[in-house]
Write a structure and sequence with these properties.
By secondary structure, the chain is an alpha+beta fold. It folds into three domains: about 55 residues; about 70 residues, no CATH class; about 100 residues, no CATH class. It has a four-stranded antiparallel beta sheet. A hairpin with a 3-residue loop joins strand 2 and strand 3. Helix 5 crosses helix 7 and helix 7 packs across helix 13. About 20% of the residues have low confidence.
Length: about 325
Amino acid sequence: MRLLGRRTREVPDVDDTCLQCGRPGTDLLEADARRVRQSCRVCGAVLTTPTSRRLRTAPDPAATGQASAASEPGPVPGADAQDGAGPLAAYLPPDMLAWVREHHGPDLPDAPDKAVMTAWHTGYDEFTARTAGDGDPRPPKFGKVVGALNAACFDVDLALERLVPKSGGAEAGGGAGRPDGGGAERELARERAEYLLRWIAGPGRSDSWIAARATVGANPAGGSPAGGAPSGEGPDAAEVEAALALPSLTDALRSDGGRTLRLALFGVRKGPALGDVVEHFGEESVRDALRAYAADGSRPLLDTLTARLDAAR
């Protein structure tokens, strides 16, 4: 099969109209004597159809404003996968959802786990890399986006600074040196991060750091007369107060790698990057949360992030 990677309208005799949404504006990915493979710039569908069905037999519908019989929507793989149709539409953008349905069949899990999502994203990224032109932006990998969202308090904007720094870093694959600071990469990264945040809030929640807090304890202000929680489940009030006595919370991060702060704030040993926590909430808000923990074992920032994930579903 011959790889083209061109706008369909630039190729003589091939219909530019999408068979799924009925509108013009497709890219011609592959074509030979038997079949034509196109992706729609409007609805995102990726469709393979017999070549005979895509040859123009009438004036260009884009030029006449009328659709030919060949451009009428028909039964095609993934035709029920339009944006908003089914649970997967919340976790995958339309073009990727169409690709997944075409390559993995119609019987897909409504709540894909981490292994399934990794496989889908890896396959789709390999496909788009083959069809993209030189210098085209690439989205960051699935695992990298999920890791960035977990580290960045489930905040898309903060995660983007890890994925595609505005300075034009190449973390997402090729942003370095671009005059727009990797603007195209940022758009791809933002789209993926927004979809994957919904996945983390739903089927992927069990793999997030916020789910691990149950292994530590719900109220671990051990040793604190006010907290009254069993000892050994988290830092005691004295440890937290010692961290609060330091001039900057940055000093507390250096003292024990952030263990005390992370356990006090979120009840986990591994979780968000504490530098991002301070940047996101502000040092005074973090100090207030530490004081609340030392006083009664509460974790207001954990409550905030839990509510954020709940709202993202």
